[in-house]
Design goal:
The chain is built from three helices and twelve strands; from the N terminus they run ββαβββαβαββββββ. With 169 residues, the chain is mainly β. It folds into two domains: 84 residues, RimM (Elongation Factor Tu (Ef-tu), domain 3, Beta Barrel); 69 residues, SH3 type barrels, CATH 2.30.30.240.
Length: 169
């Protein structure tokens, strides 16, 4: 991955018989993916340009289909590959929003100034995202307005107010 590329997600299993494949861990919505259109697939050093034809959400995941891939076997060839895009091609986020890849690696500090660790993953749940924070111990911090006080991407710091007992689990 070049420094100008970001990972959008990983291609999982083929879905159905018409060339669709699951995009796991997607940091973009189906609508965002359709705005971008041009991606790079990468697996074990191999790279391939892909043009998105369709993206649709289904059961908390996104299914995608690329130009020239019309059957399950061709889609399966992409399994376990990363889907990359040039950072400059990403749609702008709204105010107070950030892409998942921008959050991973940021330092999380509680409202008393105590460093809790760094975000290593953003999990999607039915209710809201959950940050996986690794420090002295692993914490799962729900992303909710009453918990997240501020996100400073430039400084690389997120300030949170933990619910009572969360850091004792």
């Amino acid at each position: 991955m070049t420094k100008d590329e970001v990972r959008v997600g990983y291609l999982g299993r083929a879905h159905g018989v018409q060339g669709e494949i699951a995009l796991d861990g997607a940091s973009l919505t189906a609508e965002d993916l359709e705005q971008v259109k041009n991606f790079t697939w990468r697996k074990a050093g191999a790279r391939r340009a892909l043009v998105l034809e369709e993206a649709r959400p289904i059961h908390g995941r996104v299914l995608v289909r690329f130009a020239g891939i019309r059957d399950r076997e061709r889609a399966a060839e992409l399994t376990l590959g990363e889907l990359l895009v040039e950072r400059s091609k990403l749609p702008a986020t709204g105010p107070g929003e950030a892409y998942t890849f921008e959050l991973v690696g940021l330092t999380v500090v509680d409202s008393t100034g105590r460093t809790l660790g760094r975000i290593t993953e953003v999990m999607r749940t039915a209710a809201h995202p959950v940050w996986v924070v690794h420090g002295e111990k692993e914490l799962l911090i729900p992303v909710a307005d009453h918990i997240v006080q501020s996100v400073d991407l430039e400084a690389g710091v997120i300030i949170v107010t933990l619910p009572p007992g969360l850091d004792e689990l």
